[in-house]
Amino acid sequence: MKVVANTRPAHGTGASRRLRRAGKVPGILYGGTAQPTAIEVDHNALYHALRVESFHSSILDMEIDGSGERVLLRALQWHPYKPQVMHVDFQRVDANQAITMKVPLHFVNQELATAVKLGGAVVNHVLNEIQVTCLPQFLPEFIELDLSTAEVGQVVHVSQVPMPEGVRPVLHGKEDPVVVTISLPSVKTEEEVAPEEAPAAAAPAAAAPAAAAKKPEKK
Question: Is the dihedral of CA 7, 12, 16, 18 positive or negative?
Fold first, then answer.
């Protein structure tokens, strides 16, 4: 995907406000051997691009003042209550340096699993993205997880997700987060429900002696 940007000579809060009023988004381009560059991009073009999943996890082609850069979207700042992007950060990409990115997960074929079709199991997506590291040329737009063989009681961890060539998950220490669980829906039995209803039924009977005790004595 392509991003068109221009360098901006003016800095500061006032300059940023003027840019936003003109339909632009102030931003920064950093990384690599070059110095950080203050940039501006068209708000409407950026807003619509952000609705595309791959814009968040792919290497982008940026045209800046007529020159080309390969970049990653790194950070966004939104207005507290308006659908308006206030600031955007992009990072330059070096083809020879590994990058770390969060990549979306696509769950496929879960409706074909016997546990779901015949057993009534529920597939719970605990994570919707995985942080990975790889060289830029291997960065996938998404990672697909096939759940056609899912079984009741199965728990899939990050380390069990098949990775594309040249890509590995980022795990810190011994952590191995859960990605998906497959379980049967919980159903309350009559025995579980009855104890909850019993105190309410007994309440009027318990209140009767107390009411009788409050009757005034006959003189």
Answer: negative
